[in-house]
Amino acid sequence: MKLILLGAPGAGKGTVAKMLTEMDGSVQISTGDILRGAVQAGTELGKQAQAYMDAGDLVPDELIMGIMEKRLQEPDCEKGFLLDGFPRTIPQAEALKVLLDKLGIKLDMAVNIDVPRDVILDRLTTRRTCSNTDCQAIYNVKSNPPKVEGICDKCGSPVIQRADETEEAISHRLETYNEKTAPLIGFYENEGLCVTVNATNSDDVINAIKERLAA
Ligand code: AP5
């Protein structure tokens, strides 16, 4: 499958992407995870991205397209991919369309995971993430805590709260989403690719995706 996962911060894009990749071997491509990895590794990309990310602002489109142009041509993408957190702006969506046309790749759908704002705020303040950039497993202190407090079940690394999870950064990320990313729903509706799933349960999201893929 070749999917785009749309949805506000905290809608559950990363959680759903990880569940889907475990089912069919397609690869999750999260621009947020790639950028956090670059920040932790202290690369030039990380240095350029960090201030934007910590403030809850979007990283400039040119940096993101530079990453994605290379990433989508790596061999593991042939089995299918789930784009998590990309595209995030209309210029990114337009550039992605040109790139996929050039590579001869056809998207199956863009899934808009629609979750109420109060649920999102609650989830983001209680999310914890594995600090190991090769793992980045997602937990939630309320709904899905690690078995041993503060330690990742999968790799044993410390589980932390992300730097952009202060109340101020979260509310700025939600504003940025409404202004810059929500218009992508209309963009993919016009392309005949958008499916909106109103569900707070990740299994319901996955079942809706499977039904649409089978139709
Ligand atoms: P990114 O990492 O993409 O963050 P985001 O879109 O804000 O998304 P999140 O990771 O916050 O949420 P999610 O929807 O994946 O939710 P999750 O599954 O974790 O981006 C971070 C930053 O990088 C951006 O602010 C920007 O600066 C930059 N960036 C990234 N991509 C960019 C781009 N393309 N262009 C420009 N800049 C870019 O779930 C959230 C919580 O809820 C978890 O605790 C989880 O356990 C819990 N949860 C999930 N589902 C359920 C459920 N069904 N029931 C109960 N709990 C649940």
From TrEMBL:
Summary of the function given for this chain in its UniProt record: Catalyzes the reversible transfer of the terminal phosphate group between ATP and AMP. Plays an important role in cellular energy homeostasis and in adenine nucleotide metabolism.
Binding site for AMP: T31, R36, D57, L58, V59, G85, F86, P87, R88, Q92, R162, R173
Domain Adenylate kinase active site lid: 127-164
Predominant cellular place of this UniProt entry's protein: cytoplasm
Record lineage: Bacteria, Pseudomonadati, Pseudomonadota, Gammaproteobacteria, Chromatiales
Pathway note: Purine metabolism; AMP biosynthesis via salvage pathway; AMP from ADP: step 1/1
Keyword Metal-binding belongs to the record: yes
Protein name stated in the entry: Adenylate kinase
Binding-site list for ATP: G10, A11, G12, K13, G14, T15, R127, I138, Y139, N201
Enzyme class of the recorded protein, top EC level: transferase
Alphabetical GO biological process terms: AMP salvage
UniProt keyword annotations, A-Z: ATP-binding, Cytoplasm, Kinase, Metal-binding, Nucleotide biosynthesis, Nucleotide-binding, Transferase, Zinc
Organism: Thiogranum longum
GO cellular component, one term: cytoplasm
GO molecular function list: AMP kinase activity; ATP binding; zinc ion binding
